What we know:
It contains 14 helices and 8 strands. By secondary structure, it is α/β, with parallel strands linked by helices. It has one domain: Fe-only Hydrogenase (Larger Subunit), Chain L, domain 3, CATH 3.40.950.10. Strands 2-1-4-5 form a 4-stranded parallel β-sheet, sandwiched between helices. It has a 4-stranded mixed β-sheet with strand order 3-8-7-6, with helices on one face. Strand 1, helix 2 and strand 2 (71-74) form a beta-alpha-beta unit. It is globular and about 55 Å long. Mean pLDDT is 92; it is low at 383-388. The site of iron/sulfur cluster has 14 residues, from helix 4 and helix 6. Iron/sulfur cluster binds at residues 7, 107-109, 161-162, 164-165, 305-307, 310-311, 314. Belongs to the NARF family.
Amino acid sequence: xxxxxxxxxxxxxxxxxxxxxxxxxxxxxxxxxxxxxxxxxxxxxxxxxxxxxxxxxxxxxxxxxxxxxxxxxxxxxxxxxxxxxxxxxxxxxxxxxxxxxxxxxxxxxxxxxxxxxxxxxxxxxxxxxxxxxxxxxxxxxxxxxxxxxxxxxxxxxxxxxxxxxxxxxxxxxxxxxxxxxxxxxxxxxxxxxxxxxxxxxxxxxxxxxxxxxxxxxxxxxxxxxxxxxxxxxxxxxxxxxxxxxxxxxxxxxxxxxxxxxxxxxxxxxxxxxxxxxxxxxxxxxxxxxxxxxxxxxxxxxxxxxxxxxxxxxxxxxxxxxxxxxxxxxxxxxxxxxxxxxxxxxxxxxxxxxxxxxxxxxxxxxxxxxxxxxxxxxxxxxxxxxxxxxxxxxxxxx
Length: 397
Ligand code: SF4
């Protein structure tokens, strides 16, 4: 199933609807484990006549159960885990003179861009897998064992806003020790809607259902991964509190919100002015990278998302007919965050437990093995790493 995928779904959507549909009808003794990404829950409703931004989390989970899934986990759980790992990685790089600026790594379209066009910046990428990659790894290498199952008997089906996630699922780095692809199938939000329609499930009238635990618990910080600026805001909520031992003055960090192509902000990190940037859409990313190469600006931490607005604008989301659908989806995401009692990743109780019982602590040997990854120069030309460039600039200030 791993062949060419266009990152933004413009050329073709290599659909696995038929394979997943067949598997749901004949499981052959396998357990079908679904995971759903943050941005899916504010967009799938559009396929069923509802408004963009309508929050359909419970109905989406109910529909997936109705289709025959055995377990439905939330990719938001691993978004929280990403923050624990990525926030710790950032603090570690700042403390120990690591490569800066550190770049987020959860958007596979962006990862492809770095590997193909900016390989000299590979050391700047966080080594964290995307939340999809982390969840699939946990299902195959942690959950299956706890359920007394072989990894190959837990089949992971991801529901993503994005066709580039199909490409990510095929990466050699994201295979089990036995060589199994950790994410077995990826369906876009639109493809899930198609599957629901094919099975005559009446989405709008479904009674809401909840995710399975322990990999279904999440926070407001996780859901904002769906919006441009969300990963940054979630990371700041946690990194600030861990570094300064007090909460950020406000959880709604507005300088990184909204549709501006390149957003910059400075956070007082107790003596250090932490400089951050958020960039979305390929053209803005190329602009940013050009300016970064020219030394026009430099930040400690930068979030990159290939799609306009972040994952809410992903190539696999419904093709909405209203002009303001992105604004509405964005509002829906922030509404979910506002409604959560727990809005910081490090306060996710299930995340705390998995560290206590399994990983030990962020950046542990085990978490490096199962939650982190590496990247390859995929150009002909291998350029020199920019490691150290940040510190030269920083020390000049
Ligand atoms: Fe996929 Fe777009 Fe989100 Fe990147 S920004 S992960 S390409 S939906």
